[in-house]
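== Sequence and structure of one protein ==
=== Format: two labelled lines per protein ===
==== Data for this protein ====
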Amino acid sequence: MTTRIDLINECLVLNGSAPLINESAPGAETHIACFNRATELILSCHPWNCNSYIRQLNRKTDPPEPAHWLYAFELPTELIGAPRAFYPSSECRQPTTTFELMATREVRTNHETLWVRGPWNVEPTYWPGYLREVIMLLVRSELALSTREDRALRDSLRNDAIGNGLSLMQGGLLGQARALDDMAKPSPVIAQYNNPLIAARTGSYGGPR
């Protein structure tokens, strides 16, 4: 299984720097911070197939105070930044906007049950190859500045990873990875399984004529 220290060491070696013995080695804290920053940026910038799944939230026993909302749910620590959507039922078809995010990593709502869609901080083992390459390039760009103080290398690697400032993170290898990931997504169902065009062809259409 690929670990965080394995990926950091690979990036260090590719940059011409010495690898770490373990995560407690001198300088490891800075390297890990660079890795985490790059990873969270890429994993949260696009609804990747590997980390946009839905999970049911655990409802807290005590009601929220002040009692503006009826229920409070705990947000998992693996959640990166703001959730993409909340759903009040297990079918997860229609998201709800009746909620409030709190600084204490909880969400308050009037729904008795709640499901949330990522982005999640998934393990590197589950990254597809194209996503892994983007993250590695960006980690290398961060390490180029923190270990070598080489801004030219840092800017070159960052441009290769996510494009220049004008591309708004749509360029570089990231742009290609987005396209590959989107092609792998299943096609959405029109109107939640109620498609009048298909119904008309099968003779089951019950709307106005």
